[in-house]
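Progress note, sequence design subtask.
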């Protein structure tokens, strides 16, 4: 009799389910050559067990461990499987979100839930076509909200705060946020940094969240000189800290948004010395980063040369 048959035939026996899931979690560490059909059957079994025993910490945790190991060790096959079966993708996200909501007091469960989301989003980014379907599924099924709840509950857990900030910043780049919701996510990142002021990673996430807010404000207030000046100044300041605080804007969309905000200010205020000076500093710090690939675009290079050719020395000093 196979392990799956034992689990399925004894679905109401909690002790057997717990033992079965524990075994499944252990076995999953060596299951590195599964085909798509085997992955489908194993995933169905795991999700079936999680749905039948939502209140069991042990079953939820061990089941999520099994999912993580199977996805990690069978990366290409697992990604192909969830891309082929859209409903399975939804079921996985719903199961993990439900697990994290019901067991908010269990830090281990919060960690493994975040770990699985990070892994699957990473695989989508590296193996997929860049459509962000999995990320959007997490957002649409309440993943962001449950991560925020976990961060508020586990403020003293530095590793969880790092994971949560990383995910929230990814959501900021993928979702068309209302201004209020975007600022809510940024405030959570700031709270994490304030609670762990010496942590370099959280400082980096803090600066990255500020970048998003600044760009958003600049894009909506092009006619406001003060906002454009302060935006360029802050972008220059934050960009100068990129290496020190280990954060990069690797998404092309993010990079294009930064350049659009800076170019918009430079174009609108060609003869305002402060904006031109701060904007040039920001561009300098950004473009020396080898990961800032947006600068390789021909149109971007043309615009950059055009703006940088304007002699700042002829700009009058701005009023104090």
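Output:
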């Amino acid at each position: 009799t196979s392990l799956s048959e034992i689990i399925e035939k004894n679905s109401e026996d909690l002790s057997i389910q717990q033992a079965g899931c524990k075994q499944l979690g252990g076995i999953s560490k060596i299951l590195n050559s599964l085909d798509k059909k085997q992955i489908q059957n194993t995933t169905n079994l795991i999700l079936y067990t999680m749905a039948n025993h939502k209140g069991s910490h042990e079953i939820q945790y061990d089941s999520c461990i099994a999912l993580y190991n199977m996805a990690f060790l069978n990366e290409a096959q697992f990604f192909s499987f969830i891309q082929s079966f859209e409903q399975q993708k939804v079921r996985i996200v719903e199961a993990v979100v439900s697990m994290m909501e019901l067991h908010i007091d269990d830090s281990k469960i919060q960690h493994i839930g975040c770990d699985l989301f990070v892994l699957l989003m990473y695989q989508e980014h590296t193996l997929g076509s860049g459509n962000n379907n999995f990320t959007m599924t997490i957002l649409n099924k309440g993943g962001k909200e449950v991560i925020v709840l976990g961060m508020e509950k586990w403020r003293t857990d530095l590793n969880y705060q790092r994971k949560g900030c990383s995910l929230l910043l990814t959501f900021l780049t993928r979702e068309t946020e209302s201004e209020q919701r975007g600022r809510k996510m940024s405030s959570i990142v700031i709270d994490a940094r304030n609670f762990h002021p010496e942590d370099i990673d959280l400082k980096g996430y803090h600066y990255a969240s500020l970048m998003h807010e600044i760009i958003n404000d600049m894009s909506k207030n092009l006619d406001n000189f003060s906002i454009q000046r302060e935006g360029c100044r802050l972008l220059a300041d934050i960009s100068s800290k990129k290496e020190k605080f280990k954060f990069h804007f690797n998404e092309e969309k993010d990079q294009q948004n930064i350049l659009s905000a800076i170019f918009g200010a430079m174009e609108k205020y060609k003869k305002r010395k402060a904006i031109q000076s701060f904007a040039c500093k920001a561009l300098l710090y950004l473009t020396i980063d080898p990961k800032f690939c947006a600068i390789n675009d021909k149109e971007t290079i043309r615009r950059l040369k055009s703006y940088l050719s304007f002699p700042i020395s002829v700009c009058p000093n701005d009023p104090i």
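The longest helix spans residues 107-127. Work on this subtask will continue into the next period as scheduled.
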